[in-house]
Design the sequence.
C-alpha cells in the first residue's frame, strides 16, 4: 500500500510524526511525505522534523507565502503533479491549514482515497479561514479521523456517513506523551518560577492593528505581576513591526518562534498560557495548565467543557481578571478527554489496514 502524507505548516508536523510511525508497522506499506512549503522558515519547519525524529520530507514543493487563493492554487497545482507521478492508494491530510484543503481538492478530483486526520472540529465561525478549510476537507474525505466525540456529532449533522467517521483520539497528544521526557533538558536555566507563556498569530488578533497594540498593553500589564514570555510568529512579528513594537520591554520578553521541545517544556511549567492557537488549547488541557484563549469561539470545545481552557475573547478586563484569578490560586481545573492516551495513531493505522 502506497501512502502519501501532505503537510505544510507548523501544526501539521507534530500530527504527522506518530501517524507515520504507526503506518510503518503495516506490512508492505510505502510512505512518501510531501511538504508543500507553506511554512519555510527553519524555526517554523526544519527544526520540527529534527526534534520529532521524522525523516525530512521526500518532496518539498516550496510554495511559500501568498494570498489564500494564490497559496491554495499553487499547492493544488504542485500536489496534483505529485499524485499523478506516484499513484498513491491513499493520501493523508492533517488539520485545517491551506495545504490541507488544497490537497483534499486535488485528491477528490483525481478519485484518490483521502483520509483526514483531525476531522470534524468546528468553530462555526466562517470568518476564520481554517473553518472553511475544515468544512471543505471533511466533505471530500473518505476516512475521517476525529479527536473527540463533538467532532463525530458535527460530521453526522453535516450528513457524513457514520461508516466513514472514526473516533481515534488526539494524535498531537501522542507526540506530546512521547516527547515530554526529552523536553525537560530544554528548560532554560534562568526560567522564572512563575511566568505567563503567550502566543498570538490569528488574523483576528494580529491583523487588526489597533487591537494588537491594545493586546500588547494588556501583556505589559500582566508583566507587572508575572514574567511574560512571548515567542513571536513571523506574521505577528511583521504586524508588530508595522505598529512600531520591536523590542523586548522589561515586562515582556519577545523571542523568536521556538522549536517543539523547548516550547513544550515552557508550556508544562507555565503558570498560565495566553494564546489563540488551536493545538495549544489541547496541549494545556492535557498538561493541566490553565489556558486563556483570546478568541470568541473555539473549534475545540472539549478543552473548555472538560479541560483547563477558558475563552476570554478580545476583552482586556476579562484577560487581566482571569490571569489574576490564576495568580490567586483560583485556576480552572480540568480532566483529560477520553482517548487522548498516546495511542491515537495506532488506531488510525488499524483503520487504514482494513480500508478497501
Ligand atoms: C497557518 C495556518 C494556521 C496555523 C498557523 C500555524 C492557514 C490558513 N493558516 O497560519 O491555521 O495555525 O499556520 O503557524 O493555513 N511566514 C514566514 N515564515 C514562515 C511561514 C510564514 O515568514 O515559515 C509569514 C509570511 O509573512 C506569511 C505569513 O507568515 O505570509 C503567514 O503565513 P501563512 O502560512 O499564510 O499562515 P499562518 O499565519 O502561518
Sequence:
Amino acid at each position: 500500500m502506497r501512502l502519501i502524507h501532505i503537510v505544510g505548516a507548523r501544526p501539521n508536523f507534530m500530527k504527522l510524526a506518530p501517524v507515520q510511525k504507526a503506518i510503518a508497522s503495516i506490512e508492505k506499506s510505502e510512505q512518501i511525505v510531501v511538504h508543500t512549503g507553506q511554512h519555510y522558515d527553519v524555526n517554523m519547519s526544519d527544526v520540527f522534523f529534527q526534534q520529532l525524529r521524522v525523516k525530512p520530507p521526500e518532496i518539498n514543493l516550496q510554495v511559500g507565502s501568498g494570498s489564500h487563493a494564490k497559496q491554495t492554487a499553487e499547492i493544488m497545482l504542485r500536489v496534483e503533479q505529485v499524485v499523478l507521478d506516484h499513484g498513491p492508494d491513499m493520501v493523508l491530510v492533517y488539520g485545517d491549514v491551506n495545504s490541507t484543503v488544497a490537497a483534499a481538492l486535488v485528491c477528490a478530483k483525481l478519485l484518490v482515497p483521502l483520509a483526514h486526520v483531525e476531522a470534524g472540529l468546528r468553530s462555526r465561525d466562517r470568518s476564520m479561514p481554517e473553518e472553511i478549510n475544515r468544512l471543505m476537507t471533511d466533505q471530500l474525505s473518505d476516512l475521517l479521523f476525529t479527536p473527540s466525540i463533538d467532532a463525530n456529532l458535527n460530521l453526522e449533522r453535516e450528513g457524513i456517513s457514520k461508516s466513514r467517521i472514526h473516533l481515534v483520539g488526539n494524535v498531537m497528544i501522542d507526540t506530546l506523551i512521547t516527547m515530554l521526557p526529552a523536553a525537560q533538558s530544554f528548560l532554560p536555566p534562568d526560567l522564572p518560577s512563575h511566568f505567563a507563556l503567550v502566543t498570538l498569530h490569528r488574523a483576528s488578533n494580529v491583523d487588526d492593528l489597533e487591537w494588537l497594540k491594545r493586546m500588547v498593553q494588556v501583556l505589559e500589564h500582566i508583566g507587572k505581576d508575572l514574567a511574560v514570555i512571548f515567542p513571536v510568529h513571523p506574521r505577528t512579528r511583521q504586524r508588530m513591526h508595522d505598529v512600531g513594537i520591536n523590542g523586548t520591554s522589561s515586562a515582556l520578553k519577545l523571542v523568536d518562534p521556538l522549536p517543539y521541545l523547548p516550547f513544550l517544556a515552557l508550556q508544562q511549567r507555565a503558570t498560565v498560557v495566553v494564546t489563540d492557537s488551536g493545538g495549544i488549547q489541547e496541549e494545556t488541557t492535557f498538561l493541566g495548565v490553565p489556558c486563556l484563549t483570546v478568541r470568541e469561539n473555539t473549534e475545540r470545545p472539549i478543552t473548555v467543557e472538560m479541560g483547563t481552557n477558558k475563552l476570554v475573547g478580545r476583552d482586556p478586563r476579562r484577560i487581566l481578571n482571569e490571569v489574576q484569578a490564576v495568580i490567586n490560586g483560583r485556576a480552572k481545573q480540568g480532566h483529560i478527554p477520553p482517548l487522548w492516551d498516546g495511542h491515537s495513531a495506532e488506531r488510525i493505522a488499524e483503520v487504514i489496514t482494513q480500508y478497501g
User: Anything to note?
Assistant: The first strand starts at residue 2 and ends at 7. The chain has two domains: 2-170+340-354, 182-327. Residues 182-327 form a domain with the Rossmann fold fold (CATH 3.40.50.2000). The chain has a mean pLDDT of 96.
